[in-house]
Amino acid sequence: MQIYLDYSATTPPRAEVIAVMQSAMIEGWGNPSSLHRWGAQAATVLETARMQVAELIGAPSDGVVFTASGTEANNLAIMGVAQQYRQPRHMIISAVEHSAIANPIALLEQWGWHITRLPVDRYGQVNPAELAASLRQDTVLVSVIYGQSEVGTLQPISELAAVIQAAGGLATPLFHTDAVQVAGRLPLNVRDLGVDLLSISSHKLYGPQGAGALYVKPGAELMPLLNGGGQENNLRSGTQAVPVIAGFGAAADLAIQELHQENQRLLRLRERLIEQLQSHPELVLTGHPQQRLPHHVSFYLPNADGQEVTGKTLVRQLNLAGIGISAGSACHSGQLTPSPILKAMGFSDGAAKTGIRLTLGHQTTDADVDWAAMVLKQIVNRVMASQPVTAGIK
After folding, report:
1. Catalytically active residues, by annotation
2. pTM for the structure as a whole
3. Alpha carbons 153 and 150: distance in angstroms, whole number
4. Is the dihedral of CA 71, 77, 80, 81 positive or negative?
5. Least crowded by CB within 10 Å, which of 38, 325, 335, 393?
6. Which phi and psi angles does 122 have, rounded to 5°?
């Protein structure tokens, strides 16, 4: 029995998406910047996808800039703002950002930029009052992840946007959110959220890998990371990968059609899995118990020492049983260092090595959830029985 429970890492492209991509490769292979009919055919495919993605996030279509990934969209938001200034200014992020935000921010810090990392509570949430206290006259950007990929916690994005807008006497910074894990799983509307910039990714919502998008609010100024032909409103030069973007658009369209029904199904499966795993004394839920991504379940082992038994131990054992999960964030899954996300939430080094993530998707069934829960509990029993007797002693 093979069960895939790593949908936050990537999702399998839907059959409808693959069909659209095949059609685009056959009929829309022209350069969309060319003026002849082959170019016009490709441009039609491209702009159709742009409208589909824009509808998914409640944005005007001219606000959607296609990139090659969510990572690139995040980097364009961060560095696109920073490159406008000759002298370093101030940016604010949360302490639980994905590396696609945390790493470019760390680079800016090396270049002399002033960075505030907002602390989070034990559930991984930012306090809006902390943001209000951190805003400065020279703050040019605030970036807070919407749905945390490792522990599933949702941030109060609209409340944070209100704080920024209400900052009397201060220059209003741009507000960006990484919504890669949210798109296709929860309703998204950039106007309701109050954001200026928002990143999403195709392969997280059953589209192909190799496509992402950054929403840029009209009037928000960015400098491009790539210069050349001036595609994507001069923000992302380079001939667009039309078939891949067409697949992105098709995936966005499917997500719109199925959002409510799939959201409710995932919530039910999520609660079913949490209930079964919480019954095991060695597994403790991480992230917010209610305000979390609808498909996301994450736990840690409080009594493991983080050396003999880590999250990777469980990943490997479950893989042998035909079940795919992640140890914390997929982008850190090759490292043995403590999870920076769990550390920011107050976990010890040892505990921060034991986090696991199970994420549900379109193909997940009740039977998958029940079987995975049973197998995981058996594996936990086995690996914990092999632990040194001093494990968990402070």
Report:
1. 331
2. 0.94
3. 8
4. negative
5. 393
6. -65, -15
Q: Give the lowest-confidence range in 25-29, 260-264, 297-301, 342-346.
A: 25-29
Tokens of 32: 């969309």
Q: How far apart are CA 247 and CA 22, in angstroms?
A: 9
Q: How far apart are CA 282 and CA 297, in angstroms?
A: 15
Q: For residues 323 and 5, is the Cβ–Cβ distance under 8 A?
A: yes
Could you tell me how many helices (H) and strands (E) the chain has, helices first?
11, 12
Distance CA 225, CA 171 (A): 25
Q: Is there a shared CATH topology between the 3-9+260-385 domain and the 15-254 domain?
A: no
Question: Quick one: DSSP state of residue 253?
Answer: H
Residues in CB range of 141: below 8 A, 6 or more apart = 77, 78, 81, 82, 91, 92, 173, 174, 175, 176
**Cα-based angle 56, 60, 61 (whole degrees, multiple of 5):** 80
Tell me the H-state helices in the chain. Answer: 15-27, 37-56, 70-82, 99-110, 128-134, 157-165, 190-193, 242-278, 311-320, 340-344, 366-385
Q: What is the pLDDT of residues 354-388, one digit of tens each?
A: 999 999 999 999 999 999 999 999 999 999 988 76
Tokens 């996808």: give the residue: 49
Topology given in CATH for the domain delimited by 15-254:
Aspartate Aminotransferase; domain 2 (3.40.640)
Ordered by start, the domain boundaries in the chain are 3-9+260-385, 15-254
